[in-house]
Write a structure and sequence with these properties.
By secondary structure, the protein is of the alpha+beta class. The chain has one domain (3-92). It is 20% helix and 41% strand. Strands 1, 2, 3, 4, 5 and 6 form a six-stranded antiparallel beta sheet that branches. The radius of gyration is 15 Å and the shape is globular.
């Protein structure tokens, strides 16, 4: 799978009922962090509020928007490896991730 295809299918919100047959159909989770692999190295992106922060060894870069995070991963060929989600208590807290500016296919 191309990296851009992964990001285009990621909505930011996960509903348990969409994955498993369960009595707990009201549980929803928002994307909270992404562990990504590039070369022989792992990076971590963590969402706080509406800002993504990149942790790259001792370097920390704040104020990533979702599109900046996607661009960074595409430019560095960073492969998302692990996603963590955080439980939300109401539908108004749902995270919606949209990618803009990728009308043309991008080979990565």
């Amino acid at each position: 799978m191309q990296i851009i295809n992964f990001f285009q299918t990621l909505t930011g919100n996960l509903k348990i009922k969409d994955l498993f047959m369960s009595n707990y159909t009201d549980f929803s989770y928002n994307l909270h962090s992404i562990v990504s692999f590039v070369g022989k190295h792992y990076l971590v992106f963590i969402l706080k509020g509406d800002t993504w922060t990149l942790f790259n060894d001792g370097n920390i870069k704040r104020y990533f928007t979702w599109n900046q995070l996607v661009d960074y991963c595409l430019d560095t060929k960073s492969l998302p490896t692990l996603l963590t989600f955080e439980k939300i208590s109401s539908p108004s807290q749902r995270l919606k991730l949209e990618i803009g500016g990728y009308d043309e296919p991008r080979l990565v």
